[in-house]
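QA checklist item 7 of 12: single-chain prediction sanity check.
[x] sequence parsed
[x] length recorded as 300
[x] structure emitted
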Amino acid sequence: MNKRYLAPVAAVAAAAMLVPGLAQAQSGTPGFYVGLEGGLNWLDLPRTGDEKLGYGLGGVAGYDFVGPRVELEGVWRNNKYRGSRIDQFGGFVNGLYDFTFEGFPVSPHLGIGVGVNHVESRGTKFAMQGIAGVTYKFDGGMFVSADYKIVDTFQSGRDIYDHTAMVTIGYKFGQPAVAAAAPPPPPPPTTRQSYIVFFEFDRADITPPAMQTIQQAAAAAKSGNRTSLTVTGHADRSGSDAYNMALSMRRANAVKDALVRQGIPASSMQVVSRGEGEPLVPTADGVREPQNRRVEIVIN
């Protein structure tokens, strides 16, 4: 093997064997992959000094362990030499190592391959190659790789060297699809809280038990940062409709004033009078019913 290429091939091979101990934060899913490759090939015949630019085409199939991977490669190279064409058909087993990092789609890699290379008119010979490149991984399994490969076909002191720049388009099977962003959760349902303040017959005074209920309602409104309260007055059916409507309004306003003293803004409250029209306990006209002499506080 020519000494001018011994150092770079050995360096690539050594790096490919050492990097597994240096890599960190590997991420991904193991799986098989396939790819088609193509690019430019620079044929170097050291003994003759001829160097000719040609091209190469091939394919790969392998398994990615996430970090290390192993692949089979078949490649055809074509170059012109002294007015004629030199075809090469190579088959390699490549061992590579990818530096992959969480959330980053680009991963550099190094590797080494061993196999055979058939050079037209010169037979099939043992060959080795060093590989260095970078891969961009798309969501869902597609990837694109750009590689530089230096190939040494051993020929008893007259080795043939190929410098190949390849682009590979491939697909890795079994990769999870990217999940669509979940819609934001719906806002929690608005809950209503209701409190009932009871009154004595034909009165609109706030009794001590009524004040306790009003204080509870005010505390609930403050703790829940509620912005709307409805205060609705009611009466029993012992008086006329008009009288009971006015009595219900007095009761509702008395509760409103008590809530204001507890720190509830008057502007946040709506005061309504229902008179005897919506009894809690249905009765005949003229019946005194304590459950119907009330004010309902609804917190929204």
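[x] summary fact logged: The CA atoms of residues 238 and 286 lie 4 Å apart.
[ ] second reviewer sign-off
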